[in-house]
Amino acid sequence: MQRCHWMVAPGTVYSDLMATQDLRSSMLIEVDELADIAGTAGVAILDVTTRLTRELSNTARSTCFEVGHIPGSVSFDVGSAKGVLSAKSEMLPWMWPSTEEVTSSLRAAGVHDGDRIVIAASTPRAGIDSGTMWCTRAFWTLHHMGLNVAVLRGGLESWIAAGHPLETGDVAVEPSDIVVSETGLHGRALIDDVIDAVGDGSTCLIDALSSENFNGLEPGYGPRRGHISGAVNMPYLNLIDAETALFPSNGELAERLSSVRGGKSTIAYCGGAIAATVVAFALTLLGETGIRVYDGSLMEWSTRDDLPMTNPSA
User: Fold this and answer.
1) How many CB atoms lie within 10 A of CB 105?
2) For the whole prediction, is pTM greater than 0.90?
3) Given this model, what pLDDT does residue 200 score?
4) How many other C-beta atoms are found inside a 10 Å radius of the C-beta of residue 151?
5) Within 13 Å and on the Cβ side, how many CA atoms surround 89?
6) How far is residue 24's CA from residue 254's CA, in Å, rounded to a whole number?
7) Domains annotated on the chain, with CATH
8) Helix, strand, coil percentages for the chain (3-state, nearest 5)
């Protein structure tokens, strides 16, 4: 297994695991806990289930949400290329939004200042529409913009398995007057940051895609296959026990992430800055700081022939 060269050795016992339990409870919410508070004032449940077309349009509102959703939740289209948490003016999809764009999106969803936001999703098509990565993408954006946000551990799959009810049909929302003022830019990395990281021994560059993609065995997310030179591979699906967002215990996560912990700085990337947020989220669960997600990811990097990529299959 590849490692960032300054990493803590495998088998290290992390004394901070207990100290991160409060952090975990603020970032993840269990289905029974949500059942106790759903529908109460001060709780906003945003369903970010995504079922993308080839044109990167999200059909989940009609094909999933209206078929069955957690009572009191609102459909929140993070997945579309220019969805509710994406910059409308950028050429690439899913780029970091402005405070004005997020304010508008949250107002339309009826989220109020001070609400505890719970991000929920399902995974409509295994291997295609990962609910986990859309949950963590929503979390990563809203958390860095100063909102109180958590992800539903286990998603709608665990909610249903626990015997909790679903509602059907669309939902009418009364708009709010929330104002988002924090840009959250400390949670993202730009292309120049990654260029610096390629030659920087103190930054761990993590590719969150599958090992097949990392090794150039799949078409990838642009004209060039493989990975950014110097990156290590941590497939995001290795960090959950099941879809959607069924993260294991902190102790188990620490074992799975042992090869990419302990650096001064971490930048995670993927195809379009979605799957990378799963790795960023998991590291944050363990108390790691200084983590950023590369906004353009391979959709941007692979188009630049002057930037280094490694294709082990070539």
Assistant:
1) 22
2) yes
3) 82
4) 27
5) 4
6) 13
7) 21-161 (3.40.250.10), 185-310 (3.40.250.10)
8) 30, 15, 55
